[in-house]
Each structure stands twice: as C-alpha cells, then as structure tokens.
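In the design runs reported in the main text, the only information available to the sequence generator was the tokenized backbone. The following block is the verbatim input for one such run; it is reproduced so that readers can re-run the procedure and compare outputs position by position.
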C-alpha cells in the first residue's frame, strides 16, 4: 500500500579513464612525487580492467568511493552502483559473488580501505558461466595477495537529514592467522522513508486525482560471518552466514481524492487513510569447497546453500467521506489485509575450470535450485455506506519452482592481437502455482515448464598498441520476482491500486555491445538490448467490466504487473577520465544518447478477466492501453574530486548527472538531474565527511501518458532525495590484513528475486 512500484529502465551514463602523462627532470633537486604512467585502464577479451595499484585515486578512499570513480561505473544515490548501459551491477570479490544483501554489501564496501585492492574488473556482458539475469553486469574486485596476518576493523557512524532524520552505525572486523580467516560485520539503523504523491488519471468523461503523503518508518539490523579455512595448499573450505531484519511499523498513507464521475454535477471528495505494519527476515547459509587441480590455475568449486526469507505484512485501508475543504467525514469503507510471504530455497552448484598451456581455458558446470514460496493471504472488506456484510476473500497461494542449469565456455587467445570466448547455458525451469480459493478457476493451478538455450560470444581485437575494438553478444532470461507472482493487491485508494500477476512468465533479453578504445583512455560504447515479453507495470483504467458483464460503479485505475510486449534499448556514449594539475583535480565526464522503442498493448486484467470501458452506459467502448512510442534521450554525468591540500587530507567532491526525457512503459518520464557536493577530512585513522545530495531538488519523478482514446495518466513522486549526510569513520588494527575469500553462494540467483 505504501508505494507504487515504478518500473523504469533509466540508464545513467558512466565514465572512462585517461591517465595524464608527465615527465621528470634530472635537474630537479627536490622531488615531491612521481606520476606513474603505467597502463591503468585496459580492455581484455570479456572485461575492462582498472589497475588500482597504479592509480593515486585509491589512496585514502574506501572501496565504495573508489568504485564510483572507476571507469564505466556510477552511483546516483550513494547506495547502488550501475554499469554503463546496464540495469544492475552485481558485486564479485576475487571472482566470487558476494553473499551479502544489498544493504550489508554497501556498508562492507564503504568500510573496506581501497588500498587493499589490486584491480577492479568491469564485465559489461557476462559469459555463460555467470548466473545473471536480464542485462545485469558484474563488478569483480580483486584484492592484493601479499598481506600479513593480523586483525583490522572499522567503525562508522552517520546521520542523514532530508524530510526526516535517520541514523546508521556499523562495525566490521577481519582476522587472519595462518590458514584461518574470519570476517564479520554488524550494522543497524533507523529512518523514515518519505514520499509525496500526486496521481491524476481519467478518461474524456471521468477523472480521479489523489494527492498526499506516504511515510514509511524503518528499523533494521543485520550482518554477516564468513569463515574460511585452508585445508592444504590446494583446497579451501568456507562457511558463510548472512542475516538481515527490517521492521516497518505504522507506515501511513494520507491521500485526498477528487473524483469526477460521468454526468455528475459536483466532484466527489474522499480521504484514503491507510496504515501498515510489516517486518521481514532474510537468512542464508552457504558451504563452499574449492580444489586447485594443477599449477596453471585449474580448479573445482562445489557449493551448497539454504535461504530462508520471511515477510509479514498487515494493512488497514480506510476511506472517509470529505468535502472541498478536506474535512474528514464518516468512514465509508475499510479493507483489512494479511499478506505474508515465506520463501525457502535449497541450492547446489558445481563448477570446473580447466586451463591449458596454449592459452586455452574450458569451463563447465551446473546448478540446481528448488524454491517454495508460501503466501497465505487474507482480505476482508467492510462497507458502511450503505452497510453491507463483510466480504472475506482468503487465498492460499503456493509456488514451487525447480531450475536445472548447465553451461560450457571456451576461452582462447588466438594471437597477440585476437582473443575470444564462446559458450552457452542451458536451463530447464519447472514451476507450479496453486491456490485454494482463487477468484477465478484459472488461478487455481498455474503450471509452467520451459527450456532455454542461452548462447554467448565475445571477441577482442587489438589493432595496435593504441587502438582496440571488441564485440559481445549474450542471451539471458529475466524471471519474475516471487512477490510479482503473488496475486495480491496493494491498495492506495478505493479505486487505485497495484496488482501482481501469477501468470507472469520469464522474459528473454538479447544483448549486444561494441566497444572502441583509444590509448586505453578514451572510449566509445554502443549497446543494443532486445527484450521479449518485458515484465513491467501497465495502467488499466476506466469502468471495469467483469467476464460476466457486470460493470463497476466507479472508474478504477489498476497498475498491473504483467508481460507487456517487446522493448528495445539502444545507447551510444563517449567518455574520458583525466587528472589535471599534478592530480589535484580528477574528473570523470561522459555524454551519451539512449533510444527506447516500446511496443506493447493490454486490454484485459490477467488475474480477473476484467476489461475496461470509457463509458458506463451501453454506448461505452472497451479501452486498450497501448505504448508503441519511441524516444531519444541525452545522458550526462560527471564526477569530480579536488584535493585541497598537499598532504592529501582534504578533498572536495562535485558530482552531477542529467537524464533527458524518455519514453518508458508507463508513459513519458520527464528529465531527472542531481547536483551533489561533498567534503572529506582525513586525520590519522579518522575520516570525517559531509555530503549534500540533490542540492537543486531536481531528482523528482514525473510521468505523463496521453492515449489516443482520450485516457491520460500522471504521476508526480517526490522521494526527498535532497539530503545532508554527516559521517565519522575510524579504522583500527593492521590495515594490511588479508581479506577473507568471499564465496559465491548457490542461492544468490534466487536471493535477488526476493527483492
């Protein structure tokens, strides 16, 4: 109830790196520093490599700060990272996917000194050996190897102010002694996520406007524990446990509604006052065994994992009569919902990489995921004007899914100039959804069985020492998240709600990328993605008409999660990163163009069979929502770090991004931009920082959609991105301690679908 989920493919541009060269002179008596001209950014067969050890940017930074300044990466909210042309970035450490949830991972990256990193690899089009979905990319952080034993850690406290005030604290420690490594973290905090909405929709004869506030208090605590033990020189055994808990009680919605009905002289005014109590728990355990089989780097990896996710959600949605002066009158309707979700997953994964002396690597592997979701929801509606008997609609929806996957990839360096990688992943998915009290017979049993062959190809050609060109192609699936399959409604007002769809099927994505690099400094990247059966939210509105022909009393607006036609996304961008004035000023700048092609239509609610008319009378025509439009958008982003003193203790940051107006599934998304400033002071092991985000208050979502049949839809969503954050960090212990070997969990591909 507390949000309308906006499905938008907003691609923020990122950056490239160019190292400024400088010559020294024998006549200089007092040498203050030497600028290394080592190649710091280069393209390999299937990835971009950023040699952090050769760059002064790493000094004094955290890993998260460093990633934001890495070529091709960007962060627009200081929480998540994006890769150029990608919807999402997955974090790997030493080739292993992090087993932490997103909140813990962000804290881990902000608490890890960047000096411990050897290089960062950006894989824009992952190969068949990686379990990723849709157009996701990978960031692989490679840690330095020669580090001493010992203990180190980090304590961090921060406070953020926007509409409300929020606080966060974390503690992390890493210990290594001989063959044993232990890494642990604990963090927690509380905040209130605030939103202000204006929702306006209607037809040529009717309209509905809702304005007001949504406040969502959150308290959370979580952490992780990783234990890694070296059995011998060739094998390791590791156990990891991740946990996270969130409590959101007394989340409130207060929206004032103005409803204009057909042939009515005066509008109808109501208040929607909703309350929600929710809490969630996420626990996962992963056991990993790694065996090195030869001196070339061949190895076997075996993983077994268990994931348990629980969410409990209670909502009380009440509607009150009102007038033009917004006086709260008598209660007219009340809907009470109990919407639990429990997910259990058992997973296994086996990978084997065989390396040969002639620069040939063959990788084979397989995985199995068994998932069961249990959603025993209850829905009771009370009507007070006129008084009616309560309408109870319980629905116990159970979803079972089995995924079998296997892959093979072959990587070969053909010559000093040419290298390539080819592979394929084959997946079998069997799923069954059952409901004991569904509103329609079709919802009682939903069975889907499908098989997919997903090819992959990557070629890299070094024309000479200054020019490089590469091409990649991959095919991926995007399975619906488990909450998207649960057939429940998140009610905002009486006639305005979001609705999930158990009939949603997996979409297919075909990605292509062409990259040209000059002097390992300047780049041009061309991307193309074709998405078949795109999963998104579609607004259906008008007078609902049931399959039996019964027409609703009021016009309704339903944001329905479903498959909506096909979509193409194309982008072209150029970028540069450069240091000026003896590296006092480091700037990332890129500019690009994105072109979206949407082609979808929907005229029927897939879960109820309802269709929608523009008129309640017999002359009313059925309405079809269509989006067959194109848009071309300008993307700009720049990140700047200015060193303010000679001792490298004061730093000033200026970041800016601009995303031009573009067409998405819900309509035309207006332009977004944000100007952020920061100031950082380092003193011994202490770091004090102040960050001001969205100073101009321009990072606000606005969507408009006008249909040829006269229907329109407008969304204005302010999430209060303008904020002030003050943080204090203390690093203790031996900062050269070797980090624990992070292990890719067998359930990682499933965990992402619980979000």
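Verbatim output:
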């Amino acid at each position: 109830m507390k949000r309308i989920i906006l499905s938008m493919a907003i691609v923020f541009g990122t950056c490239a790196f160019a190292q400024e060269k400088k010559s020294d002179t024998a006549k200089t008596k007092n040498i203050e520093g030497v600028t290394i001209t080592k190649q710091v950014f280069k393209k390999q067969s299937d990835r971009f490599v950023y040699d952090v050890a050769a760059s002064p940017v790493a000094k004094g930074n955290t890993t998260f700060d460093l990633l934001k300044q890495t070529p091709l990466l960007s962060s627009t909210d200081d929480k998540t990272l994006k890769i150029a042309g990608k919807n999402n970035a997955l974090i790997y450490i030493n080739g292993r996917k992090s087993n932490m949830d997103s909140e813990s991972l962000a804290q881990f990256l902000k608490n890890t000194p960047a000096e411990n990193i050897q290089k960062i690899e950006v894989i824009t089009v992952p190969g068949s050996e990686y379990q990723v979905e849709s157009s996701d990319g990978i960031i692989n952080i490679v840690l330095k190897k020669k580090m001493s034993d010992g203990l180190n850690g980090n304590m961090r406290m921060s406070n953020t102010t926007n509409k409300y005030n929020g606080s966060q604290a974390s503690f992390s420690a890493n210990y290594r002694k001989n063959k044993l490594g232990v890494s642990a973290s604990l963090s927690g905090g509380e905040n209130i996520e605030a939103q202000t909405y204006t929702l306006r929709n209607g037809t040529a004869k009717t309209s509905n406007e809702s304005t007001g506030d949504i406040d969502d208090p959150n308290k959370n605590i979580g952490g992780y524990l990783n234990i890694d033990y070296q059995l011998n020189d060739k094998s390791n055994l590791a156990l990891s446990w991740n946990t996270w808990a969130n409590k959101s009680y007394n989340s409130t919605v207060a929206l004032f509604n103005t409803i204009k009905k057909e042939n009515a002289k005066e509008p109808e005014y109501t208040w929607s006052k909703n309350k929600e109590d929710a809490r969630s728990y996420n626990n996962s355990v992963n056991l990993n065994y790694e065996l090195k089989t030869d001196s070339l780097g061949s190895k076997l990896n075996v993983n077994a994992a268990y994931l348990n996710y629980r969410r409990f959600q209670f909502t009380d949605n009440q509607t009150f009569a009102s007038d033009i002066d917004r006086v709260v009158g008598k209660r007219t309707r009340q809907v009470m919902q109990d919407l639990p979700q429990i997910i259990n997953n058992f997973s296994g994964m086996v990978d084997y990489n065989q390396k040969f002396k002639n620069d040939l690597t063959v990788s084979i592997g397989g995985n199995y995921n068994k998932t069961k979701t249990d959603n025993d929801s209850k829905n009771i509606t009370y009507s007070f004007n006129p008084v009616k008997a309560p309408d109870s609609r319980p629905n116990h929806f159970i979803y079972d899914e089995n995924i079998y996957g296997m892959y093979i990839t072959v990587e070969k360096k053909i010559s000093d100039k040419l290298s390539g990688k080819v592979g394929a992943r084959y997946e079998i998915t069997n799923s069954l959804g059952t409901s004991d009290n569904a509103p329609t017979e079709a919802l009682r049993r939903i069975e889907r069985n499908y098989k997919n062959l997903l090819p992959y190809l990557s070629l890299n050609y070094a024309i000479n020492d200054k020019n490089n060109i590469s091409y990649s192609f991959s095919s991926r699936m995007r399975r619906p998240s488990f909450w998207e399959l649960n057939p429940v409604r998140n009610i905002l007002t009486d006639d305005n709600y979001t609705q999930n769809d158990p009939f949603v099927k997996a979409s297919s994505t075909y990605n292509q990328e062409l990259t040209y690099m000059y002097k390992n400094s300047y780049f041009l990247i061309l991307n193309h993605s074709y998405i078949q059966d795109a999963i998104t939210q579609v607004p259906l509105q008008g007078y609902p008409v049931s399959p039996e022909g019964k027409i609703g009393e009021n016009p309704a607006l339903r944001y329905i999660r479903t498959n909506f036609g096909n979509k193409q996304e194309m982008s072209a961008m150029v970028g540069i990163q450069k240091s000026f004035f003896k590296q006092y000023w480091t700037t990332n700048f890129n500019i690009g163009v994105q072109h979206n092609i949407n082609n979808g239509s929907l005229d029927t609610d897939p879960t109820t069979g309802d269709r929608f008319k523009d008129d309640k009378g017999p002359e009313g025509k059925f309405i079809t929502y269509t989006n067959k439009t194109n848009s071309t958008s300008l993307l700009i982003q720049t990140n700047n770090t200015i060193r303010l003193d000679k001792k490298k203790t004061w730093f000033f940051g200026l970041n800016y991004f601009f995303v031009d107006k573009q067409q998405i599934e819900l309509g035309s998304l207006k332009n977004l931009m944000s100007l952020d400033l920061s100031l950082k002071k380092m003193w011994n092991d202490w770091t004090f920082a102040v960050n001001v985000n969205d100073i101009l208050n321009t990072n606000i979502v606005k969507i408009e959609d006008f249909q040829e049949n006269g229907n329109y839809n407008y969304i204005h969503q302010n999430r209060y991105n303008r904020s002030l954050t003050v943080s204090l960090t203390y690093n203790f212990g031996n900062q050269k301690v070797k980090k624990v070997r992070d292990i890719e969990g067998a359930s990682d591909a499933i965990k992402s679908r619980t979000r």
